[in-house]
Known about the structure:
This protein is mainly beta. It has one helix spanning 6-9, and strands at 35-44, 48-63, 68-74, 79-85, 88-95, 102-103, 109-112, 120-126, 131-135, 140-144, 148-164, 167-184, 191-203, 207-216, 224-235.
Amino acid sequence: MMPRTLAMVATLGALLVACKPSGGQSYFPLDPGWTWRYSVATDIKNLGTEKSAQLVVNRGMIVTEQKNLVLRMYEDGHVFYYAVQDDGILLAGDREAGEDAKDAPPNQYVLKYPVAVGVTWPVDGKTYLMRRQEIGPAAVIMVPIKADLELTYTVEAKDDVVKVPAGTFRNCLRLHGKGTGSANMGERMGDMDITVESTEWFAPGVGLVKMTRKEDSGPEGPAFGSMTLELEDLNKGSWFN
């Protein structure tokens, strides 16, 4: 835990400054003003497929007594705080729109150094794609399944070629995460095991260009969700304030 929580330092808007350039070969650029636009396709059991877009922008840096925290904001106002350390890039906390900031669990590495094939690390996570049916007084509703789990991420490759709407990217870093947990599927099904798999591709000097994720309760389970995210465009000057 930091001596001063993120909820406190996030109020220090006057301390926003430009962060030091991250370099052309960074897999996770944190330079202020960079904006990524992604296309997102989700497929959720009993709900079908939905397509949407996502904007992400780097907002600069908060200077604290212990760390310099870089802000990355999503279009819905959700802000994530990252710390660049000698051993990797760490998710330090987040703040949803209209709420106080909260610290992340310890050791939530987005990328662990050295960036080498075979390097692994654990990350705490939650399910967010699956839904279960619940019969209400007037209709059947779909209730989000929020299960805690621990994923193990592995650097599988550093030379992938990835083609997305924004173009073809070479020498991409491929991370694969896999974890299991347990979720309540309602009174009839009770608790069931779930499996989550995520594959992410990062291009040097660009960042995340593609991600796929699957959350599954198994062949006998009632819930399944998948998502594919692809880079549509990158702008090194913010598209929104």
